[in-house]
């Protein structure tokens, strides 16, 4: 009858002491502190490997994963932000649609608003309609709730009475699902970049 081989002596990876393990899977000496430290180091190595693995993920993959976690409300905000950015560059250099005063386009997000003729609160279905949104000053848009009377006068001059009346009479119900909001964001992000390049080329040539 063959005798079982005795485990060979090992060197503890923590305290460097030599010991004879009870079995082949024993990694440290018989000290509990060494065992705990070995587990801690293994967990640390595991975490570091996971971090390296995450770092290797492409930006596109990370973005894809994040997008899966976004709600309809998140996409709605991003779509509106893209449309507003487009309005900023489309109307760059033009005065406030309501009061007609010059706008400070050098301060994005502060001095120029994307002002809705029919507000998002009263006409949510027109929130992305570019005929319904124009560059306006903070005072008119926020403090005077759009300053709607002169807004209408100037809007008629800008886009024509027929389009203005069409906006005023449009009370259709529309629901924007996530796929639609994604398309809005994508389309107006591209349009904003296009207009931004055009404006910058014009400024450089001037």
Characterise the protein shown here:
- This protein is mostly helical.
- The chain folds into two domains: about 10-50, no CATH class; about 75-205, no CATH class.
- About 55% of the residues lie in helices and about 5% in strands.
- The chain contains seven helices and four strands, in the order ββαααββαααα.
- It has helices at about 30-55, 60-70, 70-90, 140-145, 150-160, 160-170, 180-205, and strands at about 10, 20, 115, 135.
- A two-stranded antiparallel sheet has the order 1-2. It has a two-stranded antiparallel ribbon with strand order 3-4.
- A hairpin with a 6-residue loop joins strand 1 (about 10) and strand 2.
- Helix 3 (about 70-90) runs parallel beside helix 7 and helix 5 (about 150-160) packs across helix 6 (about 160-170).
- The chain is elongated and about 100 Å long.
- The model has no long low-confidence stretch (mean pLDDT about 90).
């Amino acid at each position: 009858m063959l005798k079982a081989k005795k485990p060979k002596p090992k060197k503890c990876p923590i305290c460097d002491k030599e010991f004879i393990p009870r079995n082949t899977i024993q990694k440290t000496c018989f000290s509990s502190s060494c065992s705990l430290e070995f587990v801690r180091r293994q967990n640390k190595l595991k975490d570091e490997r996971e971090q390296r693995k995450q770092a290797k993920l492409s930006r596109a993959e990370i973005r894809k994963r994040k997008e899966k976690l976004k709600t309809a409300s998140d996409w709605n905000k991003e779509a509106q932000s893209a449309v507003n950015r487009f309005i900023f560059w489309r109307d760059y250099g033009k005065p406030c649609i309501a009061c007609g005063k010059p706008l400070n386009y050098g301060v994005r997000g502060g001095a120029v608003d994307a002002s809705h003729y029919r507000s998002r609160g009263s006409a949510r279905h027109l929130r992305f309609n570019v005929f319904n949104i124009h560059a306006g000053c903070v005072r008119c848009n926020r403090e005077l709730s759009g300053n709607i009377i002169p807004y209408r006068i100037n809007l008629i001059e800008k886009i024509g009475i027929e389009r203005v009346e069409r906006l005023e009479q449009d009370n259709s119900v529309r629901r924007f699902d996530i796929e639609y909001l994604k398309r809005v964001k994508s389309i107006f992000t591209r349009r904003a970049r296009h207009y931004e390049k055009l404006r910058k080329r014009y400024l450089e040539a001037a």
